[in-house]
Design brief:
Elements: H1 3-20, E1 33-35, E2 39-42, E3 47-55, E4 59-61, E5 70-73, E6 76-77, E7 80-88, E8 95-103, E9 106-114, E10 119-121, H2 124-128, E11 135-147, E12 152-156, E13 161-167, H3 178-182, E14 189-199, E15 202-214, E16 218-224, E17 229-230, E18 235-243, E19 249-251, E20 261-266, E21 272-277, E22 285-294, E23 299-308, E24 313-314, H4 317-322, E25 329-341, E26 346-350, E27 356-362, H5 367-370, E28 378-388, E29 391-403, E30 405-407, H6 410-414, E31 419-435, E32 440-444, E33 449-452, H7 469-473, E34 480-490, E35 493-505
Parallel strand pairs: 2-9, 10-11, 13-15, 17-23, 24-25, 27-29, 30-31, 33-35
Antiparallel strand pairs: 1-3, 3-7, 4-6, 4-8, 5-7, 8-9, 11-12, 11-14, 12-13, 14-15, 16-18, 18-21, 19-22, 20-21, 22-23, 25-26, 25-28, 26-27, 28-29, 31-32, 31-34, 32-33, 34-35
Length: 508
């Protein structure tokens, strides 16, 4: 950032702090809520300080804004005056937090400072291990830009990746398309500074100021085909570059060298690199290939992601949970055990392995409802293995098909026609167990009895996987049992067949 942008901003901030830190300065901009001070200062050695919140209605802090080093008590309150205490342990470096109190649809801003807010020059790895709230200056190569309006991207300085979550444009705005305003491109060497925050354990420098930008010597001009994807049967992807350096080197990740190779490369100021892959017998795969050049005093690095379509791998729930997180597509057929959000299709799937897979959305918003999907249905989905907060999940799930399961009573089931393609879900208590190995038993509603020809642990069970489920689950006579299956008749006896266990509970 040029000095002429920095000095006025610093003077304005200093002036605001001098005016707002007075104990007698009561904020009166909002009728709904007022605070005795909008700037809260805590000693660097640690301690507490308080302000008075005066509100006309209930109020609360936004918990997502509160850093781990700061304690606030109380976090919410009602109409009237409330003393709010801010506490923090000692810190080596200064740090700050920008907070909001919500009341009656309005928000009051409060800034909390501990010690002098110093800017520390650090590597990406040092920032990731740094103190939340402290301001850091870091230099690295831009390697992924994912939001143009706010200026969100990643940088890498060789010690690791660091997320830049928000960039101020040249006018100091947080939502002013800073990527275009500064001319930031992947491969550029950028120096930024801003406060450190952690989100789900990941480090972020937020709303950073651009201190310096050095344009890359290397740029990816185009890729053929545009999606950089090699078909399942094999083929080529061509990357066209422009270079201001002395030659270009290409690196393929070690893990991708078994399937991806360079088939042709040309030099000069407009290098062209062609990658080749043979037919793919596995799932989807991808590789981030690296291009480098230098002019003696500067080195530039850019990347491109080369992908190859793969076949879809059929798995059960346990196999999916144990799979690696990559571009491979997996197909799962299982019972919808629970619906967490019917608008987006967030559901839990369960099969005969007794494991559950969380699906973070089926298709687009509303698709789940349009398809008429519900708890108990047997659904086939295709998606990638992902995770959130360390918990595995299926992401970007695509619907393929489903078997609709209708809830009925035992009495209603007995009147249905025989049909192996129509599935029902019903509940009763176990009158007796005819075959404990396969789970042949009688269910009753107190009046009607139904023979269940096999209680298997879940959808997809075959062979030995069908055996012994009653003992494994601790299911006994008089327990309440919910089953899924189709109606058939054998030697005049009505049966629930293809029995899929759904749930059970102990008799009272």
């Amino acid at each position: 950032m040029k000095l002429r942008y920095f000095i006025p901003a610093f003077i304005a901030l200093l002036g605001a702090m001098l005016v707002s830190c007075s104990d007698d300065d009561k904020i009166t901009l909002l009728d709904e809520i007022q605070v005795s001070r909008s700037y809260v200062a805590i000693d660097k050695e640690g301690g507490s300080t308080s302000i008075i919140v005066t509100a006309k209605d209930s109020w609360s802090f936004d918990e997502t804004q509160i850093p781990s080093w700061l304690t606030i008590s109380p976090m919410n309150g009602g109409a009237g005056e409330t003393e709010v205490k801010f506490s923090a342990e000692s810190t080596i470096n200064g740090r700050n937090a920008d907070l909001n109190i919500a009341c009656a649809g309005r928000k009051q801003n409060i800034k909390v400072l501990q010690g002098l807010s110093e800017t520390k020059t650090a590597t990406c790895a040092e920032v990731a291990a740094g103190n939340e709230g402290m301001t850091y200056r870091v230099t690295g190569a831009v390697n992924t830009i994912y939001n143009l309006e706010y200026g969100n991207f990643y940088i890498n300085d060789g010690t690791g990746n660091l997320q830049i979550y928000g960039t101020l444009n040249k006018s100091g705005k947080t939502k002013g398309f800073p990527i275009a305003d500064w001319g930031i491109e992947e491969g550029d060497i950028i120096t930024v500074e801003g406060p450190l925050k952690f989100y789900n354990g990941a480090a972020e420098l937020c709303d950073v100021t651009v201190v310096k930008l050095v344009k890359s010597l290397l740029k990816v001009e185009s890729i053929d085909p545009e999606d950089a994807t090699i078909p399942l049967e094999g083929g080529d992807v061509t990357v066209n570059l422009t270079s201001k350096g002395n030659g270009v080197s290409v690196e393929i990740p070690e893990a991708a060298k078994s399937w991806l190779a360079i088939s042709n490369i040309t030099g000069g100021s407009n290098p062209v690199v062609t990658f080749h892959a043979n037919a793919n017998a596995g799932g989807d795969r991808s590789a981030d290939v690296t291009f480098k050049t230098s002019n003696g005093s500067q080195e530039s690095v850019v990347t491109a992601t080369i992908k190859q379509t793969g076949s879809i791998v059929d798995v059960n729930c346990t196999q999916f949970l144990e799979a690696a997180e990559d571009a491979t597509l997996y197909r799962i057929t299982a019972v919808i055990q629970k619906v967490a959000n019917d608008q987006y299709g967030n559901v839990y799937l369960r099969d005969f392995t007794d494991e559950q897979v969380y699906v973070y959305g089926i298709g687009a918003k509303g698709d789940f409802q349009t398809l008429g999907l519900k708890e108990g249905d047997i659904v086939t989905l295709v998606g990638k293995r992902s995770s959130h907060n360390g918990n595995p999940q299926m992401k970007e799930a695509k619907y393929e098909s489903h078997i609709s399961v209708t809830d009925v009573t035992i009495a209603e089931f007995l009147t249905k026609p025989d049909d192996k393609n129509v599935y029902y879900r019903l509940t009763g208590f176990i009158e007796s167990i005819d075959n404990p190995t396969y789970g042949n038993l009688y269910l009753s509603d107190g009046t009607n009895s139904l023979y269940v020809y096999g209680c298997y642990p879940g959808y997809g069970a075959t062979g030995d996987d069908r055996k012994g489920w009653l003992a494994t689950a601790g299911i006994e006579v008089e327990d309440n049992l919910t089953m899924i299956g189709y109606k058939d008749t054998f030697n005049g006896k009505i049966e629930l067949c293809g029995g899929i266990y759904f749930s059970h509970s102990k008799s009272e």
